[in-house]
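Researcher: Sequence of Lipoprotein follows. Predict its structure.
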Amino acid sequence: MRIPLSLLPRAPLSLLVLGASLLGCASPRPSRAPFLHAPPPFPVVSAATPPPPVPPLPPPVVVPPNTWLTPLSTRLPGIDAGITAEQVAIAADGSAAVAANCFGAFLDTGGKRRTCGSPPDPLVTFLGPDGAHRWTWSSRDDLSGRATGVAFAPSGDVFVVGQVSSGFRPGGRVPEGSDPRRRASEGVEQFLALLGRADGALRWVRAAYGSAWTLDRRGVVHLEELVADAAGNYRRVMHGFDVATGKPLHRTDLDALGPCAPRCGTASLAPHPTDGAVLFQVPEHVPDRPVTLRARHLGSDGALRSDQSLDLLPLPTAQHTSPRLLAARLHPNGSLLVHLSYYTPEDHGAMTALVRVGPDLRTTRVVHLPAHSMLVGTLGERAVVTLFVHPPPNGPAPLVFGATVPPPDDTGTATVLAAIDLDSAQATTLWAPASRQFLGIDVNHGRAVYQGKAGLAQVRLEEPSR
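Model: Prediction complete. Tokens:
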């Protein structure tokens, strides 16, 4: 039986439209309300349109070949022993002196058997321009000792700085100036020594107490010391020694610091381009204020030549820790390079800044590096730093300063050698060695000498084009 349509209940128009659309029937669409803002234009890409090209990766880092590679030690069967470099100095002719520590029994670079303590002993090795072993010097310490610094004297002899704990008697004699009571109280004593360039013979050795040191162009060793009185008040004292004889030349009182321990302000020393040394200090920092760098020029005779307080450019972020002075170095062009580090919570890591200071102790440039780095030398007009990169495990090769750096090895850290143009603030990756180890590296005279997994190596570096 058919029911006339007129007798059926009338449905809303919207249901009729919905039903028609479900049945596939054509029906006019209701008009839409206009957009409050025009919809974003979406490009129409047909199937024949090729995808946009992927930009190529920057060129990989070119690893320069080793000029020479010399093992620092050879292990004996079943004995855990070896040498660890602390600092390297490169002479103008390419010779290299290495300040190091040694432990256990081993064969040194020249093939001679040596026995060091289980806690380490200080050791110095000298290699010729071709990497050939010339001599090795070491001296036992009853507890623990290290050779921590090395430099070439104007005569070409090798000046050494180190730390010892007890029983250090190089050449069978107690170092001049040794204070058993102070050594027992502080637990450590510094030593200064001069070794002959030709044979490594001990010219002189003396005990000292200090931290920052440098050797100026006139052959004077400058050493900073913090001296405390019975009430716990500190003062900063500068000592001067003749590098040829080890004899004291001057003692200069600089500051009355009060009971500042353990934060008496970090300091670093660098040779002045004409005379004496420059002492750099970073006083306690006031948040949201420019970082202050104090620079004092002391002559080779210990007299104060100049005292400047430099307000550096504000750091990139207001939320940072007090900067820490890492190193200072004399550039061959006569300027001084000062390296600072600070921590920023926003970047979750360490940042560093390079400061260029003129011979008149005026700041000429500040360059910030967004990572932890260490100033290790100069190349042409540039400063050279090591930069530490932590790429994800088994991840892609990281891009650092415009170059593709190979993934790290089992150390898990990529160490990059980079040149910093202080005029343009441009950073260029020089090198990322496969070993990823830069122990005791020094970059000078167009060369880099460092300790890697296979021993001490030298490579030649070229300054990047501007």
